[in-house]
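To start, an entry.
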Amino acid sequence: MSKVTIIDNVLPKRVHTWLHKLLIMEPVWNLDMFSNEENHRIAGRILYCKHQNINTKTPAQALCAMTYFLLREKTKFLSEHIIRIHLGAKAPLQDDELHTDGNEDETTVLYYLNDKWNKSWGGHTIVDDVKVEYKPNRAVIYSAATPHKGQAGTASHFRSYINYVVKGNYAKDIKKI
């Protein structure tokens, strides 16, 4: 069983470029976001979280939810029950700390949002021992209980993403397909 599922070209290229431009311009970004008290600050915003009773009802939340449901059309195992939508960005040279997004009964879907990215800029995601290249319009899917971290890129702009946590046990659900 694979620890990670990768879906490339989630959206048509023009739609992905449009989504990136709209979300970057949305007035929802917060420059004081962090995963927990010990981690460094990152740019981002939790747009929806069932556990924390957060529901921003913003255009950004609607765009992110729509993107998730379009991604579900390309998979046979993802749940329709979204637990959290987090819009985030890493500054150049700003690596993540190793962390998890949830428990065994939840799945993480990480969608790479930048519309342009050069492979030489880095920005990989490390999921357990799997190194996943940052590539625009790519979704990376794994158990929310799996330790992972994002590596910042070396480009002069942010490495942006949408992080979804959804209901479902990745290990069991992926076996169904």
